[in-house]
Structures are given as structure tokens and as C-alpha cells.
Amino acid sequence: MPIYKAPLENMKFVLHDLLNVGQLSELEGYGDATPDMIDNILEEGAKVCEGVLFPINQSGDEEGCTFDNGTVRTPKGFDEAYKTFTEGGWTALSAEPEYGGMGLPHVVGTAFSEMSCSANMSFAMYPGLTEGAYRALLLHGTDELKQTYLPNLITGQWSGTMCLTEPHCGTDLGLIRTKAIPTDNGAYKITGTKIFISAGEHNLTENIIHLVLAKLPDAPEGAKGISLFIVPKFLVDSGAANHVSCGSIEHKMGIKASATCVMNFEDSIGWLVGEPHKGLKAMFTMMNAARLGVGMQGLGIGEVAWQNGLAYAKDRLQMRALDGAKAPDKPADPIIVHPDVRKMLLTSKAFCEGARALSYWVGMHLDIAEKHPDPQTRQNADDLVALLTPIVKAYQTDMGFEVANLAVQIHGGHGYIREYGVEQYARDARIAMIYEGTNGIQALDLVGRKMGQNYGRLLRQFFHPVLEFIEANQDDEKLQGYIFPLAKSFAKLQQAAVQIALKGLKDPNEAGAASTDFLRMFALVAMGYMWAQMAKIAQQKLDENASDRPREFYESKLKTATFFMERMLPETESRFRMIMAGADSLMSITEDEFAA
Ligand SMILES: Cc1cc2nc3c(=O)[nH]c(=O)nc-3n(C[C@H](O)[C@H](O)[C@H](O)COP(=O)(O)OP(=O)(O)OC[C@H]3O[C@@H](n4cnc5c(N)ncnc54)[C@H](O)[C@@H]3O)c2cc1C
After folding, report:
1. Which of 62, 161, 268, 483 keeps 20 to 30 A from 194, CA to CA?
2. Average pLDDT over residues 62-77
3. Is the pLDDT at 288 greater than 80, yes or no?
């Protein structure tokens, strides 16, 4: 049976020692978000995740959702768990108090979502999609729409969906065919078929509120002609069914307890959200939060997978250590003695702890971007979030899958069979690299949109603090092992950015060909920056003989930071070389030659 324990001490280290999230309580509306309050919430959240969501994760995977003539049922225990979850207010954490939310900082929601995804990613999809719908409405809905829908979405009495994908289009939403015809009373009739809709139909809530992309009759061609509509399953005033039906559910590789639905809309009544033809733009403004949410799925799965890998590696006895027996009283040594197993464990640990720091850092800047009184500070924070969101989404989901895969490897044959539960993590993690914009599209977003935006203004929000940190600490003897590799990889990253910008101007395929390597390189440098800062704090704590945590906590941080610098960050060098190689080897081969 798999295990999961919320990594509260590590979460607190990031929130308080690294990020000092207590500073957020000075922002308007966040007065209650003191460090103690945040800790209490996370401790209570951990109990729900460990005690309510985690126990139904493996059974949910085995049973999956079922479809019967338009009705979708979630696996056994999901409805009771959902009730506990909503009654505990976990759907309301970061929602606006004006509509019944708790109004806590996003970074608290970010931390909670890590735990819920570790405990049960399928379950977390339901409130996750609701949050996406909530944000789209909050940012773009009229007051009337907000008053009508937000309170019940926040309590979780109703759930939400995001209906974008159609059979012939996923990435290229400009191709959608779903139609919206205006009616006399200001509403629209929506007709079309959407596929792959998470939480499109299920038995957890009274009503399901669909956010649907569709085209008006006078819509311009392509992505500039898409509008966003809100379409409830049941009309709110009359309670009548709204001709929204589920045609089937998908049978898929993972997240089997999350219903993935074909949704049919037949003259379903909907209301416009935001301006006509600006639907894609409206979706994009809420996407930072949604993509960060998917990045948390990568971290969440990575964390639970690595916890299981570690437990197994301490327990499983095979062979003797290369330098002599470590457990001579036993028939063999635990596999944790073997260098290769250690490498897999440390890769996992260094990813999880570094990515936690990176994603919470971004989560905190969502709060600063929203609430800080100074407009320039808000803008700077918004720029940093925009820049790092595709990086968090793509890197953390790539690595979440990689770490789940390592957990399977650490378990050997026992990882491949169901009993230990880790093969589920690999299957569940895989989708996060695909939805909410594939990771290839995240890389294009970084290179094609974010990098050059406002003459590199977004880039500067990352480059400046890294440079300042390097300059401030480069003479510190004890930090050499962290600052030097960071500085080296950071210089290469800047060089790569300039090269891509120059080459991309002449030939856009050059930018496209460099994009995924550049995103990975960027992510590694960002992780290096996080690890160098964490190492600095750990070193200070050890120097001060701090008694707030056992010394081994800080020793562990330093050793993991060293591992990251020596064994993970050097990947930036090969990525740099691949970027510099240019597009030719990708683009010169013809379609016929591919098949030859
Ligand atoms: C389990 C599950 C849940 C989902 N939930 C939802 C949901 O709730 N709502 C919703 O609307 N959708 C949902 N989706 C759909 C998902 O968002 C899409 O599958 C995804 O956006 C990719 O679209 P596609 O499958 O059509 O792939 P395609 O767009 O056909 O892409 C295929 C490949 O081509 C690449 N590609 C495409 N264009 C480019 C380009 N310009 N440059 C480089 N590479 C490119 C892609 O990166 C990908 O590797 C879900 C899908 C699944 C499987």
C-alpha cells in the first residue's frame, strides 16, 4: 500500500524561511494571513489530504468513473469525501470574501493544492476545474453573473468546467465550430460538441457550470473570433435542464477517477462572459493561475512518488554495498546503499524541494500582483508570474512524470505491478504534460511571447534578482559550491536568450527549434537560484546553531543543494549546446526522408 505524509516542515521552510510570506499580511485584505494562521490552515489541510483524499486514491484508480446513459458516477467514497472537503471550506480558501470566500493569499492555495494533488490528483481535478471557472467569471463576468454563480461555486455546491477542446482542435482553438446564436433577451443559444471535458458530468454537485468557447455568427476567422459563454447544466432561475448532455466518458491511461467527458450542447442557453470575440483573451488572463495549478500536479505527484520510493529503498534488501556490508545482521543491505538508487532518490528530492520553492515563489507573486498598493510593484510581480508560469507548468509536469517513473524504477518489478501503487503515479502524472497547453506550447509561449515582450521587460524581473543574489554572495567562502555553478549557468542562459532572439528574428523556426531546450535550461537556472538561496539559509542556521529545527534538516538541505548543483544543473550545458546547434538538423530533413 502506498504512503503519503504532507511535507509540512519543508513547506513551512519555504513559506517562512525562504519567502517570508508573513509580509503578505501587510497587504489589504490579507491581514489575517499571519504565519501562525497559514501554518494552522496547512496543518488542517494536511489532515484532510492524508485522511480523506489519500485513502480513496488507489481504489478510485481501480474502479474509475462509470457512464450509464448520460449519467456519470465517480468511484466509491468520492461523494462523501467531496462533502467533507466542501464542508471544511477547502474550495473557498483563496476565493474573494465578497462572494463567500476566505480571501486567503494564493500562495496558501498553491501549497494546499500541492498536498491535494499528492493525495489524490483525480479528486483534486473537480475543485481545480471549479476554481478555473470561478476565476474566469470573477475576472470577466458582469456583476449579475458573479452574484448568480460565484457563491455556489465557492462553496463547492456547484462545480465548474472549462469547455475548449473539440474533436478536430485542441492546441489550435481558432478552429472551433461550436456556435453561439444571440436570442432576444440577451442570452445565447449554444450548439456544439466538446471533447475531453474534465468534470463535464458527475454526481458530486447539484449543478455544473460550464465555461464554453464558441463563435458568434459575425465572428472573424481564427482565434480572434472566439467568445466565452457561461452555460449551466440546470438553469438557475427555473431549475430546468439546459440541453447539456454527456455523450460518453473516455477510458484513459491515468486519473481514472476524474471524469473526462464528451459534452453535447444543443441550443443550450448561455450568457456572454467578457466581450464578444475576446474569449481567448479572457481565458488567457486566468490561465496563469490554471497553469500554475497544473504545475502543482507535477510537484504533488512527484512528492508522493518520491516518498514511496524512499520508504521502499530503506526497506528492500538486495545485494551488498560496493564498499562492504552496511547491514551485516541482515541477509542483504537495503537498496538505499547503492549509488544508482541514491541518484534516483536525490534527483527526486532535489526536484520536489526546489520546485516547491519555485512554485510557491510564483504563487506569492500572484498575490503581490493583485494586492500590492504600488502599481509598479504590482506590474513587476505580474511580469514575473507571466514569465515563470510556462516554466513552472512545463518543467514541473515533465519532472513530476520523471520522478514518478523513477519511483517505479526504485521499486523494480514491484513498481510495475499495482500493489505498491507507484505505477498509478506514473500514469496519473502523464496527462499534466499535455493539458492546459502542451509543454511544447508552453515553450513557445516562453520564447515567442514572454521573452521578447516589452523589449525583455519580463526577463528582467528574473534576471535582476538572480544577478543581485550572485553579486551579494559571490565572496562568501561557504557558498562557493552553490554560487559559482549558478553564476555559470545563469551566464549561459543570458547568452542563449540573446542568440535565440537574434536568430529568431531572421527565421522563426530557429526560435521554435530552441524553445523546449531553452525552457528546460531556464527552469534549471531558476531551480539553481532557489537551491542557492535555500543553501544560504541552511548554512546560516547551522552557523547560528539555530534550534528551530534539528541540524540534520539543514545538513540535508545543503547536501541536496550540492547534489543539484553537481548533478542536475550541468544539464544546462547540454541544453545550451543543443540551442546553439540551431534549427537545421530539425528542418532540413524532408517528410519523405523521415519515412525513408
Ligand atoms: C484527461 C484529459 C483531460 C482534459 N481536460 C480538458 C478540459 O477540461 N477542457 C478542455 O477544453 N480540454 C481538456 N483536455 C484537452 C487538452 O487540453 C488537449 O488534449 C490539449 O490541449 C492538446 O490538444 P490536442 O489533444 O488536440 O493535441 P494537438 O493540438 O493535436 O497537438 C498534438 C501535438 O502537436 C503539438 N503541436 C500542436 N501545435 C503545435 C505548434 N504550433 N508548435 C509545436 N507543437 C505543436 C502539440 O504540442 C502536441 O504534441 C483534456 C485532455 C485529456 C486527455
Report:
1. 62
2. 98
3. no
Cell numbers 465555461 correspond to 211
Between CA 579 and CA 516 the distance in angstroms is 9
pTM score over 0.70? yes
CA of 169 to the centre of ligand 1 (A): 8
Based on the fold, state whether residues 103 and 124 are members of the same structural domain. yes
Which of 216, 242, 277 is where one domain is finished? Answer: 277
Whether the CB of 162 sits within 6 Å of ligand 1? yes
| Rounded distance between C-alpha atoms, residue 295 and residue 399, angstroms | 10
Domain co-membership, 174 together with 259 = yes
Query: Going by C-beta distance under 8 Å and a sequence separation of 6 or more, which residues neighbour residue 455?
Result: none
* 212 within ligand 1 shell (Cβ under 6 A): no
CATH number at residue 116: 1.10.540.10
Average of pLDDT values for 247-251? Answer: 98
Q: Examine the pLDDT at 231 and tell me if it is beyond 90.
A: yes
CA distances from 46 to 240, 286, 513 (A): 39, 27, 42
Determine the Cα–Cα distance for residues 372 and 381; give it in Å rounded to an integer.
9
Give the per-residue pLDDT at 228: 97
User: Do both 103 and 186 map to the same domain?
Assistant: no
Backbone angle region of 209, left / alpha / beta, with phi > 0 → left and psi within -120 to 50 → alpha: beta
Nearest atom, ligand 1, residue 165 CA: 11
Q: Is 436 a catalytic residue?
A: yes
- Domain limits for position 141: 8-151
pLDDT of residue 281: 83
C-beta separation of 267 from 189 below 8 A: yes
Nearest to 125 by CA among 252, 305, 20, 40: 252
Angle between the N-to-C axes of helices 375-410 and 339-371, in degrees from 0 to 180, rounded to the nearest 10? 160
Total domains, the chain:
3
- With a 6 Å cutoff on the Cβ, whether 193 touches ligand 1 is no
Indicate if the pLDDT at residue 436 is higher than 80. yes
Residue 250: pLDDT band (50, 70, 90) is: very high
The closest of 291, 293, 366 to 128, measured between CA atoms, is: 293
555 within some domain: yes
Alpha-carbon distance 148 to 352, whole Å?
40
CB 202 within 8 A of CB 65: yes
Residue 283: predicted pLDDT = 82
Which residue in 26, 436, 468, 591 is the catalytic one? 436
Given 277, 308, 342, the domain boundary residue is 277
541-550 CB contacts, 8 Å cutoff, 24+ apart: 541/17, 543/478, 549/9, 549/13
Q: Is the CB of 434 under 6 A from ligand 1?
A: yes
Give the mean pLDDT of 227-232: 98
Distance CA 343, CA 309 (A): 12
Element containing residue 181 per DSSP (H, E): strand 179-182
Identity at 142, one-letter amino acid code: T
- 120 and 243 in a single domain? The answer is no
pLDDT at 572: 98
> What is the mean pLDDT of the segment spanning 27-40?
96
C-alpha–C-alpha distance, residues 248 and 260, integer Å:
9
Say if 490 falls within a structural domain.
yes
